[in-house]
Amino acid sequence: MIEPTGVAADAATILFNLPDYRVISTSLSPGGGRRVIVETEQPPGCPTCGVVASRRKERRFQRIRDIPVAGAVEVLWSKYRWYCEEPACGRLSFFESTAQVPARARSTGRLRDHLVDAVIRSGRAVSETAAAFAVSWWMVRAALTEACVMTLPDVDELSPRMLGIDEHLFRSVRYFQDPNPRRGPDTSRG
What we know:
This protein is an alpha+beta fold and about 190 residues long. About 20% of the residues lie in helices and about 20% in strands.
């Protein structure tokens, strides 16, 4: 008999579509927006030694910024602090992090990707993009800087194939002043 042994994702998790997370609950906030509470699907490994954690220490809710999904969404991550089970490891506990929300991040990777796409591919201004996504100008600028550092080559390692007009050195024209300006032109030499 062949039966799947994995846990099937529920409809809310499929619609929310944030990799490595599952939706715990959804509700309407008093302001008319939606609140989505998510948690990670797999227990994390210790960032120092890599041992997969099995004991939870504490839980806290972290508000993370994400793209609007059919309107404005407030995303709360039920984030756990885990014990490291390795006795030789110097780290006793750690907070979980994922590829979408790295350690100490307050926004998802897909939001940062959408911000970069809105500025570069759509040609929108940074302030316009920040207003459209309801984030700060500084966040859009940081996402652009990170994207540029990741994709553009290092300028110190580039060698020019040819010089452009800005790189040429032109001889400047020099004017010499006559030391005796009161004397007229010499016409005696004919």
